[in-house]
Amino acid sequence: MPKKNGRLSVDLPPSLAAEQRGEVAILRLARPEKRNAINDTTVLGIETFFAALTDDIKAVVIHGGGDNFSAGLDLSDLAEANVVEGMQHSRVWHRVFDQIQFGKVPVVAVLTGAVVGGGLELAAAAHIRVAERSAYYALPEGSRGIFLGGGGTVRLPRLIGVAHVMDLMLTGRTLSAEEGRTIGLSQYLVDDGKGLAKATELAERIATNAPLSNFAVMHVLPRIAESDPATGYMTEALMAAIAQGSEEAKARLKDFLEKRGKKVLRG
């Protein structure tokens, strides 16, 4: 059966666009005139996109249209919000970004230009981040009298450490793509204009993995990392036994032992 290519059949707001390339779905933030600032409509559209993923899609790429990934929260959404409304707003972001991190398939983000505030929180929910050299990172909430509300205080310290997050939030400093790569904000750094191709290549590679293995990496590995060693070892043993006991694993191992399996790829 030929692989699907073309626009995805999902009802998204104008601030988002989606297409399918084989087993990879590509979601584009399509609000370049606002540097892809994220408003409530966009967040709910992201939720719709991930809920609509079909079984033939094995990985997702997220990128920003225009020169920027995302300059963060559209502040007009919070300008008149009271405390209760602010909390409810934040909880919607938590719910949606959890569907990225702990969803159906691995997600690769392409980081270009501004990756700021809520944009960095969105990027942190992805599993792999490919940065172009144009990317820069900042958490300017302190200077605006607000606080992270899209899960950044949970995800970012796990990526780069509390001290780095505190520095970004207190000083408002900006990190370059190279600095971000050094502290762990991205796993890959490529030349400008090469990010989407690299991310798609990685997503296509990820899509060839056994779905159960990808599920374990997404859902089980983070929880093992946060558990005490004894619980982690037991959880690992259980997941390893479940994975290797599957019929797909048995077939793949047989192919490998009989020299028909995929070889380890470099780079």
Which sequence of strands runs across the widest sheet?
A: 1-2-3-4-5-7-10
- Computed CA radius of gyration, to the nearest angstrom: 19 Å
Which range does the strand content fall in?
Answer: 15-25%
How many β-strand stretches? 10
Helix content: 40-55%
Parts with pLDDT < 50 across at least 5 consecutive residues: none
CATH topology of the largest domain: 2-enoyl-CoA Hydratase, Chain A, domain 1
Mean pLDDT equals 93
CATH architecture of the largest domain: Alpha-Beta Complex
CATH superfamily of the largest domain: 2-enoyl-CoA Hydratase, Chain A, domain 1
Q: Helix count?
A: 10
Specify the CATH class of the largest domain: Alpha Beta
Principal-axes geometry comes out as globular
How many separate domains? 2
One letter per element, helices H and strands E, the order comes to EEEHEHEEHEEHHEHEHHHH
Major beta sheet, specifics?
Answer: 7 strands, mixed
Q: For the record, give the distance between the C-alpha atoms at the N and C termini, rounded to a whole number.
A: 30 Å
User: What structural class do the secondary elements suggest?
Assistant: alpha/beta
What does this protein structure show overall?
With 267 residues, the protein is α/β, with parallel strands linked by helices. The protein has 2 domains: 5-207, 2-enoyl-CoA Hydratase, Chain A, domain 1 (Alpha-Beta Complex), CATH 3.90.226.10; 211-257, Orthogonal Bundle (Lyase 2-enoyl-coa Hydratase, Chain  A, domain 2). Helix content is 45%, strand content 16%. It has 10 helices and 10 strands. The chain has a 7-stranded mixed beta sheet, with helices on both faces. The mean pLDDT is 93.
